[in-house]
Amino acid sequence: MNKRHQLRLALTRFKAFQDSEQRSDEILNQEFIDIAMAEARKKKSRQKLKDISDAAKILGKGPFEALRAPYAARAKEKVDEYIRERKARREAILKLCDGLLPQSGDKKIKVETRTTYEFSTQGGAAVFYARNAANILAERIRGLGIEVSIEETFYKDRVSGFAVFAFLREELDAELIRNKPFDLREWLKACRRRGVEPRVFNPFLPHGLEEKLGIDNWENDKEKYHENSFNG
Q1: pLDDT of 91-103, one tens digit each?
Q2: Burial (0-12, 13-18, 19+ Cβ within 10 Å), 102
Q3: Beta-carbon-side half-sphere exposure of residue 150 (alpha carbons within 13 Å)
Q4: pLDDT on residue 143
Q5: Are 219 and 225 contacting, i.e. CB atoms less than 8 angstroms apart?
Q6: Beta bridge partners of 148
Q7: Between the CA of residue 193 and those of 61, 72, 172, 230, what are the distances in Å?
Q8: CA distance 225 to 227
Q9: Is 109 helix (H, G, I), strand (E, B) or coil?
Q10: Strands, DSSP E only, in 76-189?
């Protein structure tokens, strides 16, 4: 079995795992709602109950929380187990992605959408940062020799984001793009070229990083830069 086929199979199983977890959560939640509604009807058999909030009012805070407690504990156990399993599956997928390159094709596949909501703290510059986040990603994809298009998304007649599409062979190739490590120096230079502050994208970037990596204020490489000038 070649590596692409292994990755394809892992991605299919990962999606099935996520879908199964969602259904399981819905079943557990519905089980609690049914029990709570039944208990409320025992107290107010003639009162019509619209939803769980009506049941909570009838039962009262203490009895309602006591009824909910075992379900909340089961839900927490499920979440903890899901996080562990998801992490293990994602790590396995990343290992399979290593060494594989995305292949261009004739299928228009969405790689990612960058939304204004992500940058809402930037006020009126939210659209500017969402657009440039999409443009920087598109630039990386074009560097792989793959055709790209960017489309605006809207919410209530306002631009809400920018969807990045790539022309690929299959969905697997979009996953390879999403998981492909990017060159930090090149990304910082792309931010400088577009006049965006990289710490809006990643607030944990240390200040002075550009200087350590040998990039000046015009995104040029400094002559004295060498590969070992930054060690962290």
Answers
A1: 999 999 988 999 9
A2: buried
A3: 19
A4: 92
A5: no
A6: 166
A7: 57, 49, 31, 21
A8: 7
A9: strand
A10: 104-115, 148-155, 158-168
> Strands across the sheet with 158-168, in order?
104-115, 158-168, 148-155
72: left (phi over 0), alpha (psi -120 to 50) or beta: alpha
Q: What is the dihedral of CA 140, 144, 145, 146, to 10 degrees?
A: -70
Residue type, 79: V
133-156 mean pLDDT:
94
Q: Which pLDDT band holds residue 231 (cuts at 50, 70, 90)?
A: very low
| Nearest to 229, CA basis, from 192, 164, 184, 173 | 184
pTM, to two decimals: 0.72
Q: Which of 63, 2, 11 is nearest to 35 (CA)?
A: 63
For the chain, give percent helix, strand, coil, nearest 5.
60, 15, 25
Q: What does the alpha-carbon distance between residue 106 and residue 171 come to, in Å, rounded to a whole number?
A: 12
Interatomic CA distance for residues 140 and 4, integer angstroms: 22
Residue 36 has which token pair? 């709570």
Bridge partners for 153 per DSSP: 161
